[in-house]
Fold this sequence. Notes:
mainly alpha; 12 helices; 4% strand
Amino acid sequence: MSDHKQRIDFVLLGTVLLLLAMGTVVVFSASADTAYHQFASPYYYLKHQLMWAAIGIFVLIIASRIDYWRYQRLIVPLYGIAVLLLVVVLVPHIGIQINGARRWLGVGSLQIQPSELAKLAMVFMFAFLLSRHRDRLDDFWKGVVPHVLFAGIIFILILAEPDLGTTVAVAGTFFVMLFVAGVQKRHLLGMTAVAIPILTWAMLGQAYRRQRLLAFINPWKHPLGVGFHTIQGLLALGSGGILGVGLGYSRQALGYLPEAYTDFIFAILGEELGLLGTVTVVILFLILAWRGYRIAMKAPDMFSSLLATGLTTMIAIQATINIGVVTATLPVTGITLPFLSYGGSSLVLSLAAVGVLLNISRHAV
């Protein structure tokens, strides 16, 4: 731990605030028609998004001012609460089921996704454990396997919701953290060899996932079925051209594109702001990743380095999966685009993660 402090990374902060501002505008544009028909007010989803954004910015400010090592005493309780909520959400009549997935807890419009808290808790937990047990990581059975089994609790519970996209994001983040912590490459390759058939089973083990994979291969064969999301997303992106049709003029947001203001917000952004808008968002996420990994490299100790690595990787993987789904380069899976998609717990906890990154940047060496 270092007492040296400097200014926070304003490039990272500015990048995130710009993504948040773009997301808020496009969420309003994408949700206004739906909100009017459902709640007789085009501002329903915008008001909620602004409320969650305000809460998230407040949490970001607090997190950026609390020295990162003080979180260590909260890691075990946070992990325990996250696991408990992941169990509770699977209980019928308690967890809220939407589109066949039981991922939410709450009442009415005030809902949270326990998997969002679990992502943050997992990064904190393994930054702590891996930094404490670095001397054991050369031993596969004593140093690596216990961490994998411990992480497996989170993977299994999230996959049971079911939520394959978040499971892949969490597992990918854990893998990167193992690599940065110094786990031997042959051990990582061995785990990859084991993970591939498990992932294959997860993708093909359920009928609806097999249908999604077929739709990914040729969505036009199922234009009114499993290929509908993909086709409508591509139509939105394609109709935007270079400069877009203009904010508020999306056709796909008028009930044609499901999840227009959540999972497929990137498609609406592409339709309204064109290639210029989508490239801008991709560049902003690349800047975010650059600054996050730069903070990890300059962090004063292994705990903060692993913490910054995990938080940055989680955001980067989630953005990559979402954009990959919308552009039909990955099979459809439900995962939001950080800082842009409509949502409460996802937005607040993503901003909390950035707050922690900003605090670590204050102690950079």
